[in-house]
Amino acid sequence: MAKEVDVLILGGGPAGLTAGIYASRARLNTGLIENVVPGGQVAKTELIENYPGFDEGILGADLMERMLKQATRFGLQIHSEQVTGLDWKGAVKKIETDQDTYLAKAVIVATGSDSKQLNVPGEKEFKGNGVSTCATCDGPTSANMDVVVVGGGSSGVQESLFLTRFVRSIKLVEFMDRMNAEKILQDKARANPKFSFFLGHEVLSINGDSKIRSVTVRDRKTGEKKDLGAERVFVWIGMVPNTGFLKGHVRLSPAGYIITDEDLRTSVSGVFAAGDVREKGIRQISTAVGDGTIAAQSALHYIESFS
Amino acid sequence: MGQNLELNHDHFQKEVTESTLPVIVDFWASWCGPCRMMGPVIEEVARDYAGKAKVFKVNTENNAQLAGEYGVISIPTLIYFKNGKPVDQIIGAVPKSVITKKLDALLS
């Protein structure tokens, strides 16, 4: 038997959970499909300092635990399942998962994005065995190690600062000639003696045997190659949207993000998008929360227009 | 509220390596978001399999030595024990169905 719901949300990060809070609090029968565990990218982040309301900052895990509790308090049903098929042609939207079939009056896509990969030799081989995109997952077991961090954006530098609690040294490799991170983060990193910087360098390979031994980089100006000793490699070079399963179902930008109007309607009537998965300029927790709010309200209006 | 599944070094041998039932040990840490979000799932598995298998959590902050002994590099890591020996593992957060599938395989 298919499960009938008013609103089905895909993705359990801040956008999806916020949409869940608004929709279930509006007494809509609301389900949320999450393919791993709720929390999204935020749960991987150690400290959040720019989300309003938490004057001392809040741990990413704490923030998401609270959002999850708040959403389920209003009756949001969370299903830990994989989406396997979509049929969005009719008025009722059909979503198949590895365990169930859902029929929804409206759908909110909030599947977010995942860390981009370097695509260099050694990356796949050492994934989960020294190559990481999660400092809070792999930092504590990196005590007294030399590590390489790839990426000088805000994520890379913020997460590296967390790593300094554990590791012996951080060699930060950035493709561009300068770091792109917020100035406040750059200043903290430059003042920390554990950091050394390899700007204008690209990663060629991650090398080792049963574990990582080094990372080969190339100076993009001189062409000089260097082997940087490291036991762990953390990669923060940007994100890719989780929209592979949507190709052919909804209009996407060339980079794969979902195109919406300002009410967060997509190219398919009754399907809305919220958060990092959407084509937009700024991707922050606060903007994801704003998106979740708008998408839920738009879905509510859409459903009401039929009844 | 969650059950107390916490296990430390002192009881590890008795509860895990000398257990006659299959055991899942969840290596985690309080600041690890994916670990924390997995917490309720782990407790559910413990409830569902009560009497058939045992489920414990080891906080790697206080038990770094245990984590090292079992080669835990990335958390969360779930290690499955049968007859006291590690026989399977899962690295990273996964849905409940992935955890129970492996456990069912050990029980059959």
Please state the oligomeric state of the protein chains shown: heterodimer
Full CATH superfamily name of the largest domain in chain A = FAD/NAD(P)-binding domain
CATH class term of the largest domain in chain A? Alpha Beta
If you average the pLDDT of chain A, what whole number results? 95
> What would you call the shape of chain B?
globular
Number of extended strands of chain B: 4
Total of DSSP H or I helical runs spanning 4+ residues of chain A: 7
Radius of gyration of chain A, in Å, reads 21 Å
What share of residues of chain B is helical? 25-40%
The profile of the biggest β sheet of chain B is: 4 strands, mixed
The neighbouring-strand order within the major sheet of chain B is 2-1-3-4
Query: Biggest β-sheet of chain A: count, sense, barrel?
Result: 7 strands, mixed
Name some characteristics of this structure.
heterodimer, A: 307 residues, alpha/beta, FAD/NAD(P)-binding domain, 2 domains, 7-stranded mixed β-sheet, 5-stranded parallel β-sheet, 7 helices, 19 strands, elongated, B: 108 residues, alpha+beta, Glutaredoxin, 4-stranded mixed β-sheet, globular
Short structural summary:
The complex is a heterodimer of chains A (307) and B (108). Chain A has 307 residues and is α/β, with parallel strands linked by helices.
Notes on the structure:
The complex is a heterodimer of chains A (307) and B (108). Chain A has seven helices and 19 strands. Chain A is α/β, with parallel strands linked by helices and 307 residues long. Chain A has two domains: 3-114 and 239-304, FAD/NAD(P)-binding domain (3-Layer(bba) Sandwich), CATH 3.50.50; 117-235, FAD/NAD(P)-binding domain, CATH 3.50.50.60. In chain A, strands 1, 2, 5, 6, 7, 8 and 19 form a seven-stranded mixed sheet that branches. Chain A has a five-stranded parallel sheet with strand order 10-17-11-12-13. A three-stranded antiparallel sheet of chain A has the order 14-15-16, with no helix packed on it. Chain B is α+β, with helices and mostly antiparallel strands. Chain B has one domain (9-107): Glutaredoxin (3-Layer(aba) Sandwich), CATH 3.40.30.10. In chain B, strands 2-1-3-4 form a four-stranded mixed sheet. In chain B, a hairpin with a 2-residue loop joins strand 3 (77-82) and strand 4 (85-91). Chain A binds chain B through residues 34-39, 42-46, 59-61, 64-65, 68, 80-82, 98-99, 128-130, 132, 134, 136-138, 140-141, 143, and chain B through 29-38, 41, 60-61, 64, 67, 72-76, 91-97.
